[in-house]
Amino acid sequence: MSGLLSGIWLYRHFILSSIRNEFTIRFARSKLGGLWMILNPLAQVVIYALILSNVLAAKLPGIENKYAYAIYLMSGMLAWNLFSEIIGRCLGLFVEQGNLMKKMNFPRICLPVIVLGSCLTNNLLLFVSMAGIFLLLGHSFSASLLLLAPLTLLVVALGLGIGMLFGVLNVFVRDLGQVVPILLQVWFWFTPIVYPPTIIPEQYRPWLNLNPMATLTQAYQQILVYRTLPELGSVFPVAAGGLFMLLLSFFLFRRASAEMVDVL
Amino acid sequence: MSLMRVQNLGKAFRSYRSEWQRFARWFGLSVKPSEEHWVLRNVNFSIEAGEAIGIVGQNGAGKSTLLKLITGTLQPSVGRVEIRGRIAAILELGMGFNPELTGRQNVVHAAGLMGFSSDQIQQALPDIEAFAEIGEYFDQPVRTYSSGMQMRVAFSVATAYRPEILIVDEALSVGDTYFQHKSFDRIREFQRQGTTLLIVSHDRGAIQTLCDRALLLEKGMVIKDGNPEEVMDFYNALIAEKENSKVEVKKHDSGKAQTVSGTGEAKVTKIALYNANGEPVDFIAVGEQVELRIKVEIYQPIESLVLGYGIKDRLGQVIYGTNTWHTDQVIIQPEVGKEYYFIIAFSANFGVGSYSVVVALHDRETHLSTNYEWRDLALLFNVFNLDKTQFLGCSWLESKITVDVL
Questions:
Q1: Collapsed DSSP state (helix, strand, coil) of residue A158
Q2: Are B26 and A11 in contact (CB < 8 Å)?
């Protein structure tokens, strides 16, 4: 474990410059360049807000604001986007970087860390544009907003844990690269992001507690939509689960490191 | 204490009946792999600072696996590699360069990948830029580069910091001649400062001029470790080796090792050098008219016979060679039991020094399809300067110098 951490520390400049390069490459040769980093998520938020409130006139029970449903949806998406982006990118990471791993000797742990850095940056930009639009629409936030930071860490732990696990296994069983995105879609619809949990029949609702992402998106919604504190009691088991997944995937990553290069 | 020690190194690629068994093994269950494929076995050698070692072998002999184990991208299955110092590899130049980034950004990225801190990189950047000599292109995206320019930048980063061990692939013969010379100068400079070179190549010339030792890998084992000329001769014989062919290494009178290989349908029975008066000689003067006379006997029926010969300098570099395929003198279906006499007349326009003759008997253009006999160091002779102007080098190029006062 300490080997992994010291590898990250030694290569910190490389990791930072890799994250920077990733954005540079994405916006290279576009006129607006880095501005797209904020324009993209902004457009996403604006489209949701306008269409859901004015065209579909969707309402959220319990809140008067016309834009309430859009705000509800975006809050859940903020958590889910980070989660699924981390898993999606970790899944193919080692396969895509196989050539580099075969030719250069560097701490392999840098690869997921770079992915994490760029996913977090994307998420931060999405949050900033979202918060800006919410304020424009007359929605306000409370001090509970600060809790988003530790919640983001939980999403990261869970996402990175699952993503690295499948990323490592995908090197050996390539079918996972196809199966996991499908599972993620199913998972998305089993998480109350698009719909409020209240529409689930009463007797099935406890099942939601088995879905850690349901707990996390609900916490996001509590903070961003209802301006209240999330239930900490339900978050702790998720935190424990996330930490467990993270440790398991790191253990697997260390065990598999040598063999991964053999197979790639 | 040597710079690098490879002890009992071996690498096996394992496959399992099911990938689940592989996963189970990570969690401590003991599972037998269904198949083990050893690509490298029992490799032992050590390297001292400042040595230059050539690694030769046929495709699939295990050269790249050995290099990957040395650089640390692959983990050995048994044994270990001990290294004191940093290793740099000029293997895949330009690996990981992104076409959308500028040369400078790619340099920073590549140097970071090699493990240098941003201070070290910033310090070395001006030197890297100067060495690449691509002017203002350095701050342009790499996609606008020619392949030669990309190589220049890649080489400059790869060698920006002097490593203790430098691995050089044969791919080094890229780029323009000017830059090739420049990069070789840098490699030699590193070597003078104590860097050990590991050179992988099929090119006999490169190995013999650069290396003072060579390792021959065959089927995952080091089958020869020694003087480059001897190893290359053996390698040459090996690539022509066929069934019921044998490779024989004898100690020549001169102390050098002589390699004879081939299937033996035809053999050289006599070879000698004669001067203009028809006397056998082994000392000749620069520019003297001489004849190389070779007697070949046929032992078994063969389709065709080609005689090839080459004259090598003392380092084993061929300075001239041809064969009767190129001169349109192939003997079709030579008679069994007969002897054929070849007389090759030429002027000994060589520089002063000692030379050897290699002869080969085969059926076509090269000795690679069939090899009746290949004989290294079949003959040795010396050239001395009797009546010519004093000169340097391996060839006598008569010149006339005129000087005018203007």
A1: helix
A2: no
Cβ–Cβ of A103/B105 closer than 8 Å?
no
Residues in chain B: 406
| Shortest alpha-carbon distance between residue A224 and chain B (Å) | 39
Instruction: Express each pLDDT in A148-206 by its tens digit.
Output: 888 899 999 999 999 999 998 888 888 888 899 999 999 988 888 888 888 888 888 88
First to last CA, chain A: 24
Distance from CA of A25 to the nearest CA of B (A): 6
Picking from B346, B352, B349, the residue whose alpha carbon sits closest to that of residue B291 is: B346
Instruction: Give, in order, the Cα–Cα distances in Å from A145 to each of A82, A242, B249, B296.
Output: 17, 21, 81, 95
Q: Is B85 helix (H, G, I), strand (E, B) or coil?
A: coil
> For residue B243, what pLDDT is reported?
47
Per-residue DSSP letter, B388: S
Q: For chain B, what percent of residues have pLDDT higher than 90?
A: 6
Reported pTM: 0.72
Which site among A97, A103, A171 would you substitute to test the B interface, given the most B Cβ atoms closer than 10 Å to its Cβ?
A103
3-state SS assignment for residue B25: helix
Mean pLDDT along residues A210-233: 84
Query: What is the gyration radius of the CA atoms in chain A, in angstroms?
Result: 20
Distances (CA, A) of B211 to B43, B64, B223, B358: 20, 18, 18, 21
Q: Taking CA atoms, what residue in A is nearest to B11?
A: A262
Contact between chains at A18 and B109 (C-beta distance less than 8 A): yes
CA–CA min distance B242, chain A (Å): 32
Nearest to A231 by CA among A142, A140, A147: A147
User: Does this complex have an ipTM over 0.85?
Assistant: no
Q: Where are the domains of chain B?
A: 242-384
Among A105, A108, A113, which would you mutate to test the B interface (most chain B Cβ atoms within 10 Å of its Cβ)? A105
Span B242-384 CATH architecture: Distorted Sandwich (2.70)
Q: Calculate how close chain A gets to B329, using CA atoms only, in Å.
A: 49
pLDDT at B352 over 70: yes
